[in-house]
Amino acid sequence: MQIFLISDNADTAMGFRLIGVSGVVVHSKEEFEDEIYKALENKKIGLILITEKFVELCGELVYSLKSKRHTQIVQISDRHGSKKTASEVIGGYLKNALGINL
Questions:
Q1: DSSP of the chain, one letter per residue?
Q2: Which tens digits make up the pLDDT trace of 51-69?
């Protein structure tokens, strides 16, 4: 299983490359959509990491793909850190996984 990164930030992509994670840097919604579909078609990729910006920009698509695909899609912060507090992130995980609102 491979891990693949879709990032809006070259520094984030470089950091992940240093630990052996390949990926792409994209700057628009259209580029993101093209790359996520390419990654999902690649049977070797089992985990797709995407930066927070693209979850904000394409949230409906991301959540739809998460529920319909076997490949895991995980949101990560970029080099600037998360815009959300820890409780917001954990609350979001609980809501998505269990349907619980805190």
A1: -EEEEEES-HHHHHHHHHTT-EEEE--SHHHHHHHHHHHHH-TTEEEEEEEHHHHHHSHHHHHHHHHH-SSEEEEE-BTTB-SS-HHHHHHHHHHHHH----
A2: 988 888 888 888 888 877 7
